[in-house]
Amino acid sequence: MTQSALLSHIIEVAGLPANRLPAAARQMARLSLFDWITVSVAGADQPLAGMIRDFVGADGGTATATIVGSDIRLPARAAALANGTISHALDYDDTHFAYIGHPSVAIYPAALAAAEDVGASGTDLVDAFLVGAEAACRIGMVLGRDHYDAGFHQTATSGAFGATVAASRLYGLDAAALRAALGLVSSRASGLKSQFGTMGKPFNAGAAAANGIEAAGLARRGFTAADDAFDGPQSFLVSHHARPDGAALIKDLDSTQFVFADVRHKLHACCHGTHAMIEALLLLRAMPACHRDQIAQIRVHTAPRWLNVCDIKTPRTGLEIKFSYVFLAAMVMRGVNLAAYDSYDDRACDDPALQALAARVEIIGDDTIADSGTRVEIVCDDNTHLEQSFDLLAPLDPDQLGQRLLAKSAALLGDERAADLWATITNLDHLSAAEIARQLRR
Amino acid sequence: MTQSALLSHIIEVAGLPANRLPAAARQMARLSLFDWITVSVAGADQPLAGMIRDFVGADGGTATATIVGSDIRLPARAAALANGTISHALDYDDTHFAYIGHPSVAIYPAALAAAEDVGASGTDLVDAFLVGAEAACRIGMVLGRDHYDAGFHQTATSGAFGATVAASRLYGLDAAALRAALGLVSSRASGLKSQFGTMGKPFNAGAAAANGIEAAGLARRGFTAADDAFDGPQSFLVSHHARPDGAALIKDLDSTQFVFADVRHKLHACCHGTHAMIEALLLLRAMPACHRDQIAQIRVHTAPRWLNVCDIKTPRTGLEIKFSYVFLAAMVMRGVNLAAYDSYDDRACDDPALQALAARVEIIGDDTIADSGTRVEIVCDDNTHLEQSFDLLAPLDPDQLGQRLLAKSAALLGDERAADLWATITNLDHLSAAEIARQLRR
Q: Do B225 and A195 touch (CB under 8 A)?
């Protein structure tokens, strides 16, 4: 694939008619919308949410798009900035491993704001998100781990391109205007991974979403940009450390073969590196042979890279619990709902029963286990031995996933609001984007 | 200098009290304000100006800051985006060679919008710009040509930091909040050189200015960002190809030793690489010994790198004239005002007298000549031989510079408007920023 063919490849994906969008990916996009609204509303009371609402609210402007956690409406670009930032506040949103980023928090805020702006339907909103997310996944693959390791936050950089694709589809840009928009956002896409642990991380997502509205809005008015800004000699790809063989990775992908379908949703409000263990333990815990009160030892085999990330042995705060294999293992076995944000309370660190069980958990780095996998053993006092492997990338049953996302939503927002949101998303083909956006309000 | 000392160095510059700002740099900042308003208003009818005004105008919002070439007022962030973009439309604004960029177009739009927002004085506006421009120059030096050659447009990247410093000073941020703002803008600073020749280039300047308002506005509300986002291990500097020895270049600079004072203003509406030649020819033309109508040959010695930039031998459009040594040389000797934008008309390419003279101009690459310099020889029919060297970096008399900027302004805006603008800038210590901003209006 030559360089300019890369942009044409993205533009082809962006322009797919609705009836050619793959059904499995569409279904995942709907579940991602449900999940994105859940984590957005759940994060709407975080301190940064108030700050960014105040920032865009002070500017005011046309009442175009909904702002999470408020009753005010603001211009689409302001809404994208605020909603993208707020929705990533809890770090509880979806992930795509090939993209190396979080699709929904960068792209849904742009898609929803643009959809409200033009009065689009719920169906068109999801489809615009989907082609944007697919574009972001493919560009994320082209950028690869080279880009990530150089210091860039793919959620924000690749996400800005995805947000541009989504917004451009809703604003009705033709291929030439979309090409200009992608050229323009090549100058705008940014975001550093060094922001992790600060408000700068969610801000990266909001900035990406706003970049999409901005690039689409300017290209829509005739703005031009360099044809080779994305992938020419001194382009975004070259200057931002894209992997040298990146284009080859996607050249054989059919435009309708959506990698986005592999998106994964966080079902527990803690570090993603612990999720495979939690899933395996939940399966073990449900086994009749598991004597939950007589556990002698739990052995967790995990990819060694996680040992530097989420192996805090003695957490002292709720935040540290999120990065503590041993404590999380104890919490699962004691029946704590790890989907609920409130479970990660500082006081849980002092619970003697959890401390005692955590002390019997051993974490073992194992090179043969994938980053997304785990193997867990439980030995009971009577020498019963149970074992369970789990891989987060294993295929998911969408109905089962939907039920778990609904349970997550209920844990975060309460049963009633979660059910109402579920009914809205289930019914989205009969609703306008504006009616869906009402779910974001206070 | 350790890495974190670099940020402290910038913060020290940003916080200098007015009475410690060096007088020469302050005077240049005032001349830059005059020149920036001149080129902004002169560019206000360009097609991109209408597009970006329409884009921000559609969003509306609080009537805070003036938009170039209109009677509407919009939020500061919108004004910074629009005014930065419009002011760089003609590519006729100031340049700083060490910064490798254009200070005014990225920083004045942010400073002016913030100054209008808080009701600051004209003096405070200029001083805020000045510390922002000095920060941008120093960061530009740290980034160096490595960054530029990697594909980045320093005007936009380094400019975003300068815009943040300027806006933060006007919004009254303390050192801790400024540090957060600089951390935040480390995630936002962007802009590619591959946009040159498209609307993407001026957009880069507008985006930088808007980034400054955004980072300052969020940090002002308590937003946090990573301490090491600017210069830590996976920071902006590292990921964006800063020169490895960059910090050493500024470590011995006293905080009040302002490199910004070396800013240079474009006095001719054509490629900067031709300006030294034009200045030398203007001096030769004024010599009594110069027989203007009997020129046998003009020989222009120039730095070889310019031969790839501005040595079009047979320009076919007004735009190509701007990159044509031989044609510009002919125009100078025929008394054409190269400060005037209208002089670069497509029809000038067909002028037989200009063509004939251009054919007698020889351009010679010479490694011993600096990028900012030239040596020009004129040989007349009677064998009179005249020679003149010129270096754009040679010290300037500020009064003489002021008169030339006034003449440039008159060539672009007409005598009356230029005189009115000059009176305003001369009197700026007695005016508010809002009163100065009125000069931007239609």
A: yes
**Which residues constitute the domain of residue B239?**
3-264+398-440
Q: Same structural domain for residues A255 and A296? A: no
**pLDDT score of B370:** 94
Token pair for A101: 């980023």
For residue A178, the number of C-alpha atoms closer than 13 Å in the C-beta half-sphere is 27
Asked if pLDDT for residue B298 goes beyond 50, the answer is yes
B233 or A79, which is more confident: A79
Q: Find the CATH number of the domain harbouring B257.
A: 1.10.4100.10
Q: Are residues A222 and A279 in the same domain?
A: no
Q: Classify the complex by whether its ipTM is higher than 0.90, answering yes or no.
A: yes
Chain B neighbors of A151, CB-CB under 8 A: 234-235, 238-239
CATH number at residue B338: 3.30.1330.120
In this structure, are B52 and B143 located in the same domain? yes
Based on the fold, state whether residues A225 and A310 are members of the same structural domain.
no
Judge whether B212 is closer than 8 Å to chain A, CB to CB.
Answer: no
Each residue of B378-422: pLDDT tens digit? Answer: 999 999 999 999 999 998 899 999 999 999 999 999 999 999 999
Task: Tell me whether residues A223 and B186 touch, CB distance under 8 A.
Answer: no
Do residues A421 and A298 share a domain?
A: no
DSSP strands (E only) in A264-348: 295-302
Residue A3 has pLDDT above 70, yes or no: no
Asked if B57 and B202 sit in the same domain, the reply is yes
Closest CA to A209 of A164, A265, A260: A164
Could you tell me how many residues make up chain B? 442
Measured between beta carbons, the chain A residues lying within 8 angstroms of B228 are 194
A63 to chain B, any CB pair closer than 8 A? The answer is no
**B233 to chain A: which residues are within 8 Å by CB?**
194
Same domain? For B154 and B51 the reply is yes
Q: How many domains does chain A have?
A: 2
Select from A51, A75, A241 the Cβ nearest to the Cβ of B59: A75
- Chain A residues in contact with B199 by the CB 8 A cut-off are 223-225
Confidence at A395, pLDDT banded by 50, 70, 90: confident
3-state helix/strand/coil string of A69-121 = CCCCEECHHHHHHHHHHHHCCCCCCCEECCCCECHHHHHHHHHHHHHHHHCCE
| Pair (B340, B410) in one structural domain | no
* B residues 218..257 contacting A (CB < 8 A): 218, 221-226, 228-229, 232-236, 238-241
Q: For tokens 């054989």, name the residue.
A: A252
Chosen for mutation from B117, B145, B192 (greatest number of chain A CBs closer than 10 Å) is: B192
